[in-house]
Write a structure and sequence with these properties.
Layout lengths: L6 E5 L3 H13 L4 E5 L19 H10 L3 H7 L1 E2 L3 E4 L13 E3 L9 E2 L2 H14 L3 E3 L2 E7 L5 E7 L4 E6 L1 E4 L6 H5 L4 E3 L4 E8 L11 H6 L2 H5 L2 E6 L2 E8 L3 E8 L12 H11 L1 H10 L2 E8 L4 E3 L3 E2 L3 E3 L5 E2 L7 H20 L5 H22 L9 H15 L3 H6 L6 H6 L1 H24 L8 E3 L6 H8 L6 H27 L9 H4 L6 H12 L2
Parallel strand pairs: 1-2, 1-11, 2-7, 4-14, 5-22, 11-20
Antiparallel strand pairs: 3-6, 4-5, 8-9, 9-10, 12-18, 13-16, 13-17, 14-15, 15-16, 18-21, 19-20
Helix pairs in contact: 1-4, 1-10, 2-10, 8-9, 10-11, 11-15, 12-15, 12-16, 12-17, 15-17, 17-19
The chain binds flavin-adenine dinucleotide.
The site of flavin-adenine dinucleotide (FAD) has 36 residues, from α1, β8 and α10.
């Protein structure tokens, strides 16, 4: 390939576009990769973009696949997992709220990203590595053709330029350039609503109490460097520490339970916090932090009808799809889309037809997307119910590490042979997951809540979730990986059965999941571990 045939143009140099360029240049150093980005560099720190919390797949992708470990460990913050404080009464005492989270930094590493710092670093790195990163450049026209595509952009100086390229890869975020240009159908499902702001200063969850026992329960660093979630009926609030001692705070609500008008301004968001999370509101008031920015957004749950085309265009990042910020999955999906796109570019370089690989890529991507939609859609109502929520948190975490997550972290996500061998387990896992989401919802309205232990510190004792997460960082042979996915499915079946027994005291044969778990091999330790985690029995 040469000339336009060798050129790939990426629209947008944010998180999705810059990481895609890095992955492409690492895999195919002879390509001519151009990024067109509207912003000028350097971009501002801290108060730049939303999307700061990463989880396991994203951590693996950024650290190992893109080899950004030095930047992440030295310039960003190491992350101590996700932590949840469940509601109790009027939420005026953090020590009486059930706490679900880690005591240590998980072995599978992830990070809290200052997005401005990250994107400045990526800009400099990509330029060094030979990517033609054109900033202050607004894409104004895209023509997709059979042979080569044409992208026109205008520089801030007013000069207009056109690039011919074999591939156009859209990473334009909310601008959704290709979706609009090609009139692709935008599929919207029920969306939550969010408002967020950044403050200059450290918001420490440990400042919410002086109770020595509560403070000593978890190392201070674990509470400070995780993503803290304060949750209640129909909402959650994030507290994300950023390097440079800044903090990102956001509220996400289900409009079914909360009037989104209440999140329309910074002042009204503070008033909302005073009502629902009075301790955090009082802390912010007392500390008088400088508020660096404020933004609100709704209607963000969206997917484009098509993401990967045999006509050599593709979408990555939120221009193609976004589910919900709960569990911070945004960068995981960027990692998946980018990995699939790189594989498609490789097929094209090898002269292979792209129809079947594009179709397979969409199936894989949307299987994950649909699974995550079932995790969040109509699920915020559960958060009032401590028992159903704790079961959901333990279940969702374990599920995330059991199938596609394990394959991705073992760099086998696009391995067709392995995918074939575990296709039954992945399909059943997905069905079991969707069914369990309905079960959690049912429990939250029909089963009386129960007193739980307050400290569900998930890594204090070995348990099913920890084993699944630890497996993410093990190196498996193909056979061992297949065996591990099958084992994980069995563990999930056991977990479902154990949850039914604990919550409903009901044999699984009478439950919604009976058919899905039929033939599973019971792992008694899973039941004991669940009991320990929830009730300390
Ligand atoms: C409330 C909320 C909370 C979230 N929290 C998280 C989280 O904690 N963790 C997480 O991983 N994800 C989170 N996300 C998702 C997060 O936003 C994405 O993961 C990430 O920011 C998407 O990156 P992107 O590259 O797709 O978009 P962006 O980072 O927005 O990049 C798009 C780029 O395209 C450029 N552009 C647009 N139009 C043009 C044009 N015409 N010409 C040239 N350039 C153009 C823009 O300037 C921009 O830089 C959250 C999303 C929401 C809505």
């Amino acid at each position: 390939m040469n000339g336009a045939d060798n050129t790939i143009v990426i629209l947008g140099g944010g998180l999705a576009g810059s990481t895609l360029a890095k992955q492409l240049i690492m895999m195919y150093p002879n390509l001519d990769i151009k990024i067109l980005e509207f912003n000028s560099y350097p971009v501002p720190l801290a108060k730049f973009k939303v999307g700061e919390s990463t989880v396991d797949m994203a951590g693996h992708y950024l650290r190992n696949v893109l080899q950004l470990e030095a930047h992440l460990e030295q310039e960003q913050l190491p992350k101590y997992g996700l932590r949840f404080f469940l509601p109790d009464g009027d939420n005026t005492d953090i020590t009486t709220r059930v706490e679900v989270g880690n005591g240590q930094r998980p072995v599978s590493k992830s990070y809290q990203l200052d997005r401005g710092k990250f994107e400045n670093f990526m800009h400099a790195t990509l330029l060094e590595q030979g990517v033609d990163f054109i900033d202050s450049a607004k894409v104004v026209n895209i023509a997709i053709n059979e042979s080569s595509h044409r992208v026109t952009y205008v520089k801030d100086s007013g000069s207009e330029h056109t690039i011919e390229a074999r591939w156009v890869l859209d990473a334009s975020g909310g601008a959704r350039l290709l979706q609009k240009t090609l009139n692709l159908e935008a599929v919207h499902t029920k969306s939550h609503h969010s408002a967020w702001f950044r403050v200059a200063g450290k918001v420490e969850i440990n400042d919410l109490s002086t109770d020595p026992q509560w403070l000593a329960r978890v190392p201070e660093v674990a509470r400070q460097l995780c993503t803290n979630h304060l949750i209640g009926k129909g909402y959650w609030v994030w507290i994300i520490p950023l390097s440079g001692d800044n903090t990102s705070i956001g509220v996400v609500v289900d409009p079914e339970y909360h009037d989104v008008e209440q999140l329309k301004t910074l002042e009204s968001t503070h008033a909302w916090l005073s009502q629902h999370e009075p301790q955090l509101a009082a802390l912010l008031q007392a500390k008088q932090f400088e508020v660096m920015d404020y933004k609100a957004m709704g209607n963000f749950t969206y997917r484009c009808e098509s993401l990967f085309s045999p006509n050599r265009w593709a979408l990555t990042g939120i221009c193609g799809s976004f589910t919900d910020p709960f569990y911070s999955p945004g960068t995981d999906f960027i990692a998946i889309a980018n990995t699939l796109i790189c594989k498609l570019v490789g097929e094209d370089l090898a002269g292979n037809d792209l129809k079947a690989p594009c179709m397979a890529s969409e199936q894989m991507y949307f299987a994950g997307y649909d699974s995550l939609i079932s995790t969040v859609e109509n699920q915020y109502g559960i958060f009032a119910h401590n028992l159903a929520t704790s079961c959901k948190l333990l279940w969702d975490g374990t599920l995330a590490w059991s199938g596609a997550g394990l394959m991705f972290c073992n760099d086998r996500f696009t391995d067709a042979k392995i995918a074939m061998e575990v296709s039954d387990e992945l399909m059943l896992m997905s069905k079991l997951h969707t069914t369990m989401q309905q079960v959690f919802r049912r429990w939250s309205t029909s089963i009386p809540d129960r007193e739980l232990r307050k400290d569900i510190i998930v890594d204090q004792l070995d348990n099913f979730g920890q084993r699944a997460q630890r497996a993410l960082v093990q190196d498996y042979s193909d056979e061992a990986l297949v065996a591990q996915v099958k084992q994980n499915f069995n563990t999930l079946c056991t977990l479902a059965v154990a949850m039914f027994k604990l919550v409903e005291d009901k044999p699984v044969t009478d439950s919604e999941v009976a058919l899905l778990v039929s033939g599973y091999r019971h792992e008694p330790e899973v039941e004991t571990e669940l009991n320990n985690l929830l009730f300390n029995h």
